[in-house]
Amino acid sequence: MNSSSYRHNPISLIAGLTASALSALVLVACTQTSSTGLDAGLLSSDAPDGSSGALSSHATLHSSAGGTSSSGASGNSSADAPTELALGAWTEDSLTAAGETRTFVLTVVPGTTYAVAWNDTYQGDGTTSADIYVSAASGATILFDDIDSGFDYPRTFIATSTSVEITVRGYLNSSTGTFALRAYLGSGFSSSAGTSSLSGSSSSSGSSSLGGSSSAGTSSSPGTNPVIPLTLGTAWVSGSLNVRDTVTYTATVAAGSYYTIAWNDRYEGDDTKTADVVVSAYKAADQSANYFERADSGWLSPRSIYSTSTTLVIVVHGFSQSESGSYALQVTQN
I need a surface site. Which of 167, 216, 221, 298 has the fewest CB within 10 A? Predict the structure, then answer.
């Protein structure tokens, strides 16, 4: 039979193949079908459950130290349990291979406000080598997802259960290196109690107030995250910040009254202060409801609030976590 007969008669062509050649042909066909089926399963808009099968930007697959897991799942292998995260202390870890993830578990109290900060090569103190994304979830509730930086502006959340899972992955699939992670109470910046051993903390000099100094307004040594009773009135209360410090003031106010909150700092003030601060005001000690948050300046345009409770909480922290120096604060009833 000539080649022309094979070309026009496929049955004769197959019959003319040797057994080994026919086996090879079947193997190639099966391989192509399997590959095509996998791609279609990932990219088809008609997934078996009726949802889109297209991969989203957060649904990439990450290879962990013990295997591969999908986004949102633990990146630790079954033999490598998630790391328990101690509240208040920096925890150092690393991504050692491309595609790796690290999972941490934080025990929390429902209804309490927490913050999560991380130190990486994109935003940190220059001592780490990995650029990371961080996510947090409480059961099926996503608290925050794939956030790029959390050193100058830590992420806050109110706990809705007794456990929070925090997942760290590289900014790129190929990202490796060291990082540090910290969770702590409150919604302000972290205090230097949790300063990573990757870096030290420096204390600031004393502060002066606008009309004399007030011992009530001076922050204590690094790491104590002081809570200071605040006296209302026209007198300015002086204070100082250490690197990564937070100073919290509490005052008893009259519900249904107006109050004015002003502050004097390096960014906007009378040029006697050395710290650039950010101020928040809350309605309760757990900081679950606010009057305002992270206001940058309050000298030329002080903040006015209408109190809805008898408790006023004011949190002062640096514009960045590397900020330190003096400031002054004043709260008056209108």
Answer: 221
